[in-house]
Amino acid sequence: MMDPADLPTPPLRNDLRLSEAAPGSDGEPNWVIQDTVVNRFYRIGWLEFECLLRWEQTPRQICEQVSEQTALRPDPAQVLGLRQFLEQHQLVRPDSAAVNRMQQRSSGNQWLTWRWWLHHYLFFRVPLVRPQRWLQALAGRLDWLFQPLVGWLVVALSVLGIGLVLQQWDTFTHAVVDAFSASGLVSFALALIAAKTLHEMGHALVATRLGLRVAHMGVAFVVLWPMLYTDTGESWKLRSARQRLAIASAGITTELALAGLATLGWALCEPGTLRSALLYLATTSWVLSLALNASPFMRFDGYFILSDLLDFPNLHERSSAQARTFLRRTLLGLPEDWPETFTLRQRRLLIAFAFATWLYRLLLFVGIAIAVYLLFFKALGIFLFAVEIAWFILMPVWRELKHWWGARSQVPGKHRAMIAGGFGLLLLLLALPWHTQVHGDGVARAERQLRVFSPYPAVLREIQPAGAVSEGATLVMLDEPDIIARVRSNEASIRSYQARLSGLLADPSGLAQQAVTQQRLQVEQEQVLAARSEVARLSLTAPFAGQWKDINPDWHSGQWVGSREPLGVLIDPSSWQVDAYVEQDEVHRLQPGAPVRFYSRGQPSPVTGKVLAIGSTRAAQLAHPMLAARFGGPLTTTEGSRELAPSRSLFHVLIQLDAPPVTGQESLGDVQIEGSRRSLLGEAFTHVAAVFLRESGF
Question: 307 and 239: one domain?
């Protein structure tokens, strides 16, 4: 059999275009191969360019000519690798056998195979328009937008808008929270469409201004989620990295400008439909630009911006190759060569970037898997969840483990022992029952506290200043003019009846009216006693010694107060308790008397305590509004209900603290309770079994 190095290389396709690109960071010249059929671009270096100049010869002949005529010293294996790359991407002219294979592939029912459906379910594009003609006309009319003065003006207006919003931050946040409704979600979707349309227009207009052709614009479906896209593949023809950076950053720049101007518009507008629309535009644009598009860990704008800034094409693939080699060399001790030569600092940065990318994608893909499970009915949701986890997470891990297993004979004995010992130690740590803490959220409050209210609408006469008070001290003095007038009227009637009764006793003929007058006098006296009892209720005293606080400083004597408005709070600062809530899966591990540590928000040192009581049924309502997410707390509550009913199964745990919180006030915090010991492996098995049992019923 003839050596492949002595076989001629297949000819290149006639429709390919080869153009010079910007030199690399090391000064080496680069070129770009353009596949005009699919509008794809492939960047090649000096060696590949010299080989293509001498193509359609044998690899051995190509190597000899390159070595004689240049300073390069290639070997036939490198030429064969280039040939494989060109064939893989269909850049060579197909021979008869290749044509037959393509005909069979195109005539076959590819769409009936599971691989076809899996690939097209995960990602596919739908081109909608070929915008080059109207993009050129629009770019000329919008030339004024690309002037530096306009850019600085947008920045200044955006900063002004952010400053104005910060001055009314509470109103802004409340408006955002109120927007999460059925109609609000529709408005957010419309704002998203508008923002992403302008985002893609930014890419397209900048590319057009730089003389590039935008082949098409359309919708890409990533795991059935629609996303607008713009084909700016011709940016690789640009020799200037700064120009490529301008195209890559145009979308984020447009979206940030939209967010800044919408923020300013919201701050200046009166409440109404326009202000609500600007709110949706501002929040959607800020979140998408900063949280999603700017991320360099997915192939969004942030990735291409970083690649252009570093002038480092294929950053994900090259950094991942470095990280895989690092793991093989470090963990297995395999004598593998590095895929590329970098300085030690560059290699460490690439490996760290690859690890960060893997972690980010793990969290993102798990989130997508959960989302597709929730979006569809149970059977399809479980299937799509499994597909997401298997394709994006398990398959890459499995491929790497297969490589490790194939190279197991090259692993030194020392590394084998280290791997076995590390795996055994990890399994031991997971299996040992050392996990004891049960976490929860709670509010520390005084065990004895009294909110003071007026018994009925009355006039404020005097209120005790905030501070320490003794038992029986008067906290609030109130007046009710109608009751006072009624008392005076009754007292005058009593005096009248008493005088009349005295006259009747002196007159023998008045004995018949004596009994009637005596009854009326008794009624008036009882009314006076009842009125004075009501007056006594207007003097509010402290039933126990404590701290008198939370008094409205704007109150003054002579002001009317209602019966539903608290006048102040009296607390006993000597004894404190915590109303805590823990998950249903954890409550069985708790016992009364268990030690507790309570961490107030913002305080590094805990307050110790013990469990007093554990609820026997799930909590129907949160005891404190500050725990609810709608008021900035950590616990979500049922939507559409005024009551604070938790959306998850939570159990109430009453805790007695050994000392008051550092702040000395009612405060939100985290609770750590010592529960029964349990291994992480046992917990994981229990959770998996519970999920399996719950989801197995259709």
Answer: yes
